[in-house]
Specification:
Elements (H helix, E strand, L loop, with lengths): L20 E7 L7 H13 L4 E5 L21 H13 L3 E5 L7 H4 L8 E3 L2 E5 L4 H17 L5 E3 L12 H8 L5 H19 L4 E5 L8 H7 L6 E5 L7 H13 L4 E9 L11 H17 L6 E9 L13 H17 L4 H11 L20 H24 L1 H6 L2 H6 L11 H25 L2 H11 L1 H21 L3
Parallel strand pairs: 1-2, 1-10, 2-3, 6-7, 7-8, 8-9, 9-10
Antiparallel strand pairs: 4-5
């Protein structure tokens, strides 16, 4: 990282965008980094223009008492979180904790102790808004988070993708009787949660994701007075979303009483549940669209608080891991610089490359030749090698080699039967390829172990490495056993 570059003045030929606070989203519900790694990358976030952290704990928060069952075995300790807060203050970061309070409650409702609070008995996604115990559960979670974060200005209460709302037995009965509807169920619960926060923590404002508000009628939204209680975070991760449609949505919120809003973009984790490599160009385009929205926003009627640059680690609690944080760092750097300067030109690209220690910056997908030298770059390097080449290398060797196809097929391997003179035509190549990938995978594992807890390393290896590597290793084992059976005794 070049000295003094973080203080570089704005470009004279580009008007600085009025985007508000730039938050980096840390999604801890998958591949949560060790605190030691966060200490390494917070300075990098600040260097590229971040001004805060949206911290989505999920099961990494050290819940105690009757909530102790919610926390992961690797959950951060209270002292770790305090160290994290001190580090954030050092970089003048706003910290906004995120706790789900309605939808995406899988990490809570999967447990037997809380399964009776599901909206639908068979699905742990959403909370039943009719039970008084549901609200008490949410209050307890908020209280425990606030006990550690006692100096925050905002708390994000989630409330997105409340799947199956209205499909539970109690909801269906009330809806059939005409006493409520899905929109009313949503608004009532969110208002109860937000009202509790405002009454209990008067200096803290709740933020919610906006997707459940989008299809609620203007009159109903305005009449709910929710705009007096929460600030919506409007999220859109597509590269080419409709700017005009977005501005109409914002105008609806403004008219319904929401005077302060947030945007949410994405730097990774939004292009596929099992995506391993980050397309910088896709996320760059998303940010350029958000800048178009910001530039057209009527500032006299609504205030843009800031933008959360999200980096999803799982699509939900039960899905596979997508791009690891170090893999997405170059994309994050590009996105933050774009927000900072309102453009991403050769000048910004040079700045990112110098800061990350890269000779080149592949905008579409990472290069296997140059991962840079930033904290975690070794993970990016080996992940890129493995994802780009491992499967292809094994397929080419085992499916295209004429001697393997013709004389050492699956049937031959099963029967340990091969012509003695044939195996020498592929033995050396097979052993060389296997040795190469075992070394690369071992290096990747060591790089990941420096950043992640063992369960994350195990999960990523099982999902993305072991199927291809074990296929190759099993072939070598069959070859060795066949050679041994051919030995004349």
């Amino acid at each position: 990282m070049a000295d003094g570059q973080g203080d570089k003045p704005m470009r004279e030929d580009v008007k600085p965008p009025q985007i508000g606070l730039k938050l980096v989203h840390l999604d801890l519900k998958g591949a949560p980094p060790k605190i030691s790694y966060l200490q390494e990358i917070f300075p990098l976030f600040a260097h590229f223009g971040a001004e805060g952290i949206l911290l989505e704990y999920e099961d990494m928060f050290p819940y105690d008492g009757n909530l102790q069952v919610l926390k992961s075995p690797n959950a951060y300790s209270p002292s770790y979180i305090k160290d994290l807060m001190d580090l954030a203050r050092k970089h003048q970061f706003e910290i906004i904790p995120l706790v789900q309070t309605f939808g995406h409650m899988e990490f809570v409702l999967k447990h037997k102790a809380f399964s009776h609070l599901r909206e639908m008995k068979t699905f742990p996604n959403s909370l039943n808004p009719h039970k008084e115990e549901s609200l008490e559960l949410v209050k307890s979670m908020i209280d425990q988070i606030m006990a550690i974060h006692d100096d925050i200005k905002w708390i994000h209460i989630g409330s997105d993708e409340v799947y199956y709302l209205g499909e539970g037995e109690e909801s269906k009965k009330l809806i059939e009787q005409g006493q409520t509807n899905i929109d009313s169920l949503f608004l009532s619960h969110v208002k109860a949660v937000a009202s509790y926060i405002i009454a209990t923590y008067s200096s803290v404002k709740p933020i919610i994701w906006d997707d459940m508000l989008r299809n609620i009628s203007f009159d109903k939204l305005q009449g709910s007075t929710l705009g007096q209680l929460v600030e919506p975070m409007i999220w859109e991760y597509n590269a080419d979303f409709d700017v005009h449609k977005m501005l109409c949505q914002i105008q609806k919120y403004q008219g319904a009483g929401f005077s302060q809003i947030w945007f949410a973009s994405a730097f990774k984790g939004a292009t596929g549940a099992a995506q391993c490599l980050t397309s910088i160009s896709y996320h760059l385009a998303n940010h350029l669209q958000w800048l178009n929205v910001a530039q057209t926003l009527p500032r006299n009627s609504i205030h843009l608080q800031g933008i959360a640059v999200t980096g999803w680690q799982r699509y939900d609690h039960f899905s596979v891991l997508c791009e690891l944080l170090p893999v997405g760092i170059p994309s994050l750097a590009v996105c933050l610089q774009t927000l900072r300067h309102g453009v991403f030109s050769e000048k910004e690209e040079k700045y990112v490359k110098q800061s990350l220690g890269c000779k080149s910056l592949r905008i579409n997908f990472p290069s296997i030749e140059d991962a840079g030298n930033f904290p975690g770059s070794a993970v990016l390097d080996y992940v890129t090698q493995v994802i780009t080449c491992l499967q292809e290398s094994v397929d080419k060797l085992l499916q295209e080699n004429i001697y393997i196809k013709g004389w050492f097929s699956k049937y031959h391997r099963k029967k340990k039967y091969v012509h003695p003179g044939i195996i020498q035509n592929f033995e050396g190549e097979v052993r060389g390829v296997c040795s190469h990938w075992e070394t690369a995978v071992n290096n990747l594992q060591k790089a990941m172990e420096r950043i992640y807890f063992p369960d994350t390393v195990e999960e990523w290896m099982e999902e993305y490495v072991n199927p291809a590597l074990m296929r190759l290793q099993n072939f070598v084992q069959d070859m060795d056993e066949t050679l041994a059976s051919m030995t004349i005794k």
